Amino acid sequence: IYNALDPENEEKKLPASTTISNTALQGGGSEVVFIRLTGATGQYGIVSVSGLSSAVTKTITIEQTGVVHE
Fold first, then answer.
1. Which residues make beta-bridge pairs with 60?
2. Tens place of pLDDT for every residue, the chain, 70 residues?
3. DSSP string across 6-48
């Protein structure tokens, strides 16, 4: 179970030039939390990511098992 105060949480920051759009995650949230050891998540779905200096948008798929792919 996720605990926001757990000191072992790891937050990954993206560069300021990164834009996240078209988020469609299970449950309608905007965050994905992976379960330690298994990597599974209840917040699976798709997220589109692009950079300010690039016209390219990548769609990232997050599987319920925790597998992430483009």
1. 47
2. 667 788 888 878 888 888 888 899 998 888 888 888 899 999 999 999 998 776 788 999 999 999 999 8
3. -TT----PPPTTEEEEEEEEGGG-S---PPTTT---S--EEEE
CB 66, CB 45: distance < 8 Å: no
Q: Residue 19: phi, psi to the nearest 5?
A: -115, 130
Q: What Cα–Cα distance (Å) separates residue 24 from each residue in 5, 6, 31, 38? A: 26, 27, 11, 22
Q: Report the C-alpha gap between 15 and 64 in whole angstroms.
A: 26
Paired with 18 in beta bridges are 51
Q: What's this model's pTM, rounded to 2 decimal places? A: 0.72
- C-alpha torsion sign, points 39, 45, 23, 14: positive
